[in-house]
Specification:
This protein is α/β, with parallel strands linked by helices. Helix content is 32%, strand content 26%. It contains 12 helices and 14 strands. The protein has a 6-stranded mixed β-sheet, sandwiched between helices. A 4-stranded antiparallel β-sheet has the order 2-1-4-5, covered by helices on one side. A hairpin with a 2-residue loop joins strand 4 and strand 5. The chain is globular, with a radius of gyration of 25 Å.
């Protein structure tokens, strides 16, 4: 079983809001934040952190990075509870963080940026070229920062987060501004890091990209974790598995007979007209569809000489899962995700 590198147990944090009084002009009170957060970051896993605007994702990331100090709760690293959370120097070697929307400008180069950071950390400079090669910046090592694309900026930010070989990586909106090719390359780098045993937490509103690379997700809403785990398990729990869609040029009159003849009489389905065609939607069983069952259902129609011109599993997007868990409608969730990350 993979090792839990970092555990949070019952963590609370509230942002401090100025509330001056006559006798206490600098008085502050607790405002919004996160509450009762418990999670594990496991070696070799990529976890997606998802939630509507204001859910508390950025607050949680900053707390994990040691930029905020929890009001309450426990932090356990590699099985040992951390006693000093007031000045979290432990984060310097254990945690690497890639902040959102870091832009690199000027006549400096990726090599010089990393060289300066290596010097600050008292690290040997003879490994810089190999270091930049790993994140795909080797051929751009001596190009000016002004000449780099947004994808190269993101790679340089990732390289900075990797200095010191941290066990845990926290990435805030790492796919921002990347074209599809750059996203694919960046995802490949992250998967290689996970294979090396890093625990990676990614906060992102680009759910389609996130869904393709994560092992599990943490769903947040109003400062709390409302669901976490494997996507398939969450889909099953909330009954949002992918339906099977078949489209025909004409109405299919004998569906029950076709299914019962092939031992699929227990399937739940509906048929309806869409434009000039007819659609049969078959409700997904618990656990979703396996390839064999889908092939057998298709063969039911083909053997009856009723051939669909379209046959596919309806894709359930992560935004729909978030909608089902939070109770918000899909449109509101989508609009919130397109806003500033919270």
């Amino acid at each position: 079983m993979a090792e839990a590198l970092l555990e949070l147990k019952g963590i609370d944090y509230h942002h401090k809001i100025a509330s001056p009084t006559l006798l206490k002009p600098f008085n502050k009170i607790g405002g919004l934040g996160i509450k009762n957060i418990s999670l594990n970051l496991v070696s070799g896993n990529i976890i997606g952190l998802v939630g509507p605007n204001g859910a508390g994702k950025t607050t949680l990331m900053k707390l994990l990075a040691g930029l905020l100090i929890p009001d309450k709760g426990k932090i356990v690293f590699k099985g040992k509870e951390l006693e000093n959370m007031i000045r979290p120097n432990w984060t310097k070697k254990m945690i690497g963080m890639m902040h959102e929307n870091v832009h690199w400008y000027g006549s400096s180069t990726p090599f010089k940026v990393i060289e300066r950071l290596f010097t600050i950390r008292n690290m040997k400079n003879n490994k810089i070229e190999k270091f930049l090669d790993f994140v795909g910046l080797g051929i751009k090592a001596h190009d000016s920062l002004d000449s780099l694309s947004q994808g190269m900026h993101q790679r340089l930010s990732l390289a900075c987060a990797l200095i010191g070989s941290p066990d845990i990586l926290l990435l805030d909106e790492p796919m921002n501004g990347l074209d599809p090719v750059a996203r694919e390359a960046f995802a490949g780098v992250l998967k290689n890091l996970a294979k090396q045993g890093k625990a990676i937490l990614i906060s992102s509103h680009q759910l389609a990209e996130l869904e393709r690379m994560v092992d599990s997700v943490i769903l947040m809403h109003e400062g709390e974790i409302i669901e976490k785990g494997n996507l398939e398990e969450i889909r099953d729990k909330y009954g949002i598995n992918n339906d099977l869609i078949l489209k025909f040029p004409t109405k299919v009159a004998n569906i029950k007979e076709i299914f019962s003849k092939n031992k699929f009489e227990n399937l739940n389905y509906e048929q309806y007209k869409e434009g000039d065609s007819f659609t049969i939607k078959i409700n997904s069983p618990k656990g979703g569809w396996d390839i064999t069952t889908k092939q057998e259902i298709l063969e039911c129609f083909v053997s009856s000489k009723i051939i669909p011109f379209d046959f596919r599993s309806q894709k359930i997007e992560l935004v729909e899962i978030l909608s089902a868990v939070t109770g918000l409608d899909v449109e509101k969730v989508g609009m919130s995700l397109r806003g500033k990350n919270g």
